[in-house]
Amino acid sequence: MAKENEDGQEKTEDPTPKRIQEAREKGDVPRSKDLNTMLLTLVAAAALLTLGPIIAEALKDVFRYNFSIDRVDLFDTQGMFRHLTHSAKESLMGMLPTMAVLVLATLIAPISLGGWNFSTKALAPKFSRLNPIEGIKRLFSLNSLVELFKSIAKVSVVGVSAVLVFLAYRMELPYLAWMAPEYAFGRMVEILAWVAIWVSSSLILIVLIDVPFQLHQYNEKMRMTLQEVKDEMKNTEGKPEVKGRIRQLQREMANRRMMSDVPQADVIITNPTHYAVALKYDDAGEIGAPELLAKGGDELAMKIREIAEANDIPVLQIPPLSRAIYYSTEIGDVIPEGLYMAVAQVLAYVYQLKQSKSGKAGHPGKAPSPEIPSEYKK
Question: 247, 245, 250, 294: which is closest to 268 by C-alpha?
Fold first, then answer.
């Protein structure tokens, strides 16, 4: 069953990218404490296993140095201070590589789920957390119940793993006290590293349950109602009524610009009533092909014809060619090569009409009916 918001509406919609981005800006990203703990302890154990010989060697040097104290140093406070300083320095240098790996793991482990995210809003105090009623609700929430079962499971799993590891090394541990220090230190660090690895690996079972649960909880928390999605779209893209009005105004402006170009046309080809296209041919231009200045259907086609008649532009009724140009060519583009021959016949006829009007030639007769390639027929 889908969750409900404060208004009682069901959250049935997946979160939008904008909602997820806003949540990240507030520092709200999916996290798994158990995943962080497991990765950190595994890295620490691996570092101890790999860099353990360095730590063991440093400890051996410290013990060797401090168990071979001169009688004079025993009664010299400065001598004892030198021993303390030297021991601290050697211990720090021996553990420094392991500490550097741990610091790096501490920075990387939290971003293994949810990625890197820094938000100043997350640092702001939330006084709602001081509300005792809200605190009681969180205490008895499903998430708290899950955390309780997880804690019990972690203690059980880690406890069983620790017991099994102890049983595996129970025969060897007493002998460490009888081994020479130079061997005992190295073996002790190695055993500690393997114990940490096995105990940390047992947390994988918890992580395999916790990570999907955290992702599910986060997705459920981010889910939105249908009304929230609609409101976000309105705020982001504007109201549909406003967008529709803007598109209408843009179309009107484009039509006005287009109509202002109609008087420059050489010929208007019509359907005769449903379509009208205005062509211009400039043989001195760079393209050298007829260009579509305007096109329209129904009322817009009628307006194009009216402007053409007012400017004494020839209007020819050639339905197949008008439809072919209308559907295949955009305003400002030249006509396709497949229509060159048909348009050429029309332009030749228009040229003869002009010659006839100037008295240089007779009337060319009936308008041509050029053949239209099948791929342009509509």
Answer: 294
Whether residue 289 is found in the same domain as residue 212: no
Question: Taking residues 329-353, what's their average pLDDT?
Answer: 88
Same domain, residue pair 277 and 367: yes
CA angle 230, 235, 240 (to 5 degrees): 65
Sheet holding 291-297, edge to edge: 291-297, 275-280, 267-270, 315-317
| Residues contacting 129, CB < 8 A, separation 6+ | 135
Predicted confidence (pLDDT) at residue 357 exceeds the cutoff of 70: yes
Which residues, in sequence order, are bridge partners of residue 295?
277
First to last CA, the chain: 52
Give me the pLDDT at residue 50, please. 81
Q: Are residues 71 and 205 in the same domain?
A: yes
Domain boundary among 195, 223, 251: 223
Q: Are residues 194 and 269 in the same domain?
A: no
Domain, as residue range, for 334 = 261-376
pLDDT at 5 over 60: no
pLDDT for 258 equals 81
The CA angle 39-41-44, to the nearest 5 degrees, is 105
Number of domains in the chain: 2
Give me the amino acid identity at 59: L
Nearest to 210 by CA among 160, 147, 157: 147
Distance (Å, rounded) from C-alpha 114 to C-alpha 27? 10
In terms of pTM, does the model score above 0.70? no
Among 245, 247, 242, 313, smallest CA distance to 276 is for: 313
Q: Are 294 and 320 in contact (CB under 8 A)?
A: no
Paired sense of beta strands 275-280 and 291-297, if any: antiparallel
Buried b (16+ CB within 10 A) or exposed e, 125-164: eeeeeeeeeeeeeeeeeeeeeeeeebeebbeebbeebeee
Please check whether residue 236 lies inside any domain of the structure. Answer: no
Q: Percent of the chain at pLDDT above 70? A: 83
Pairing of strands 275-280, 315-317: unpaired
pLDDT tens digits for range 149-166:
878 887 888 888 878 887
pLDDT beyond 50 at 1: no
Give the DSSP per-residue string, 259-271: HHHGGG-SEEEE-
